[in-house]
Design a protein that fits this description.
The protein is α/β, with parallel strands linked by helices and about 280 residues long. The protein has helices at about 50-60, 105-115, 120-135, 150-160, 180-195, 210-215, 250-270, and strands at about 10-20, 25-35, 40-45, 65-70, 75-80, 90-95, 170, 200-205, 215-220, 230-235.
């Protein structure tokens, strides 16, 4: 579960994505560039439908790009000429739950590394039990997803992603829909994992408190077509807990982020943007 900080750098260079649903030319991304360091927690915020998930899908290898290039540790993973290539080095945690309802927690977590031939069943189960124990989830091994709260399901999904030892964890609003208390617990859970594993995180959210509390850097996106409007470096010390939310430095960062996001959200509202991707 331990990773080195020399892996997981993402270079996004002048990426453009054009959709053409039903003959309508729609530009989702245009001139989008980012440089995310290995072991960095990068958070992406912007108006609904601006293209955040489109970018995540391109990094994951689920969607093509029209122009530009995306590199992972210097290796080209996306360009107009390159075929889709999802890989175990990039694992996605989606908004909607993706646990297999007919499998237990232990079976869900171990499925990936066993089916890919990365681990034997016994080794995968041993690692899964160890991760669950260290993260305070021992005793859930034989439960089915429907027996767990949404918060516990989210934790199991993140553990299932990390047992595959990806270079990058891609999270598409994973805590959307959780109540405030559950979300607070999930934040601390994810930060504990981040501090332990040093995996690169690419995290999409609409929640500015979440963005600043979790991230090393926040990328504020423009309304569609999306590109980077502002890069905010979150120079808050780690490890973090929720006491930091009341500090003057945190409030200053939030004001900075809110100003940039509100301007773009207003543009999207006036333009009548709808959720595309």
């Amino acid at each position: 579960m331990e990773a080195t900080k020399t892996q997981g750098s993402i270079s996004i260079r002048n990426v453009r994505k054009v959709y053409d649903p039903e003959g309508v030319h729609v530009v989702a991304l245009d001139g989008c560039s980012m440089e995310i360091g290995a072991g960095e927690f990068a958070v992406i915020v912007g108006p609904s439908g601006c293209g955040k998930t489109t970018l995540l899908n391109a990094i994951a290898g689920f969607d093509t790009i029209t122009e530009g290039e995306i590199y992972l540790d210097g290796e080209l993973i996306a360009s107009p000429q390159k075929r889709l290539n999802p890989g175990a080095d990039r694992v996605v945690v989606f908004q909607q739950g993706a646990l297999f309802p007919w499998k237990t927690v232990l079976e869900n977590i171990t499925y990936g590394p066993v089916i890919q031939g990365k681990m034997s069943k016994n080794l995968a189960e041993a690692q899964a039990r160890d991760m669950l124990k260290r993260l305070g989830l021992a005793g859930l091994e034989d439960k089915y997803p429907e027996e767990l709260s949404t918060g516990y399901q989210r934790r199991v999904e993140i553990i299932r992603a990390l047992i595959n030892e990806p270079k990058v964890l891609l999270l598409d609003e994973p805590f959307r829909g959780l109540d405030a208390v559950s979300k607070s617990v999930m934040h601390e859970f994810l930060l504990e994992l981040f501090d332990t594993t040093h995996r690169t995180m690419f995290f999409i959210t609409h929640d500015l408190d979440e963005a600043i509390f979790l991230g090393d850097v926040v990328y504020v996106m423009t309304t569609r077509p999306a590109k980077v409007k502002k890069v905010i470096r979150v120079d808050l010390p780690r490890p973090r807990d929720h006491r930091i939310l009341g500090t003057e430095k945190y409030l200053e960062l939030k004001r900075d982020c809110l100003e940039a996001v509100h301007e773009e959200a207003l543009k999207a509202f006036i333009a009548g943007e709808r959720e595309l991707a």
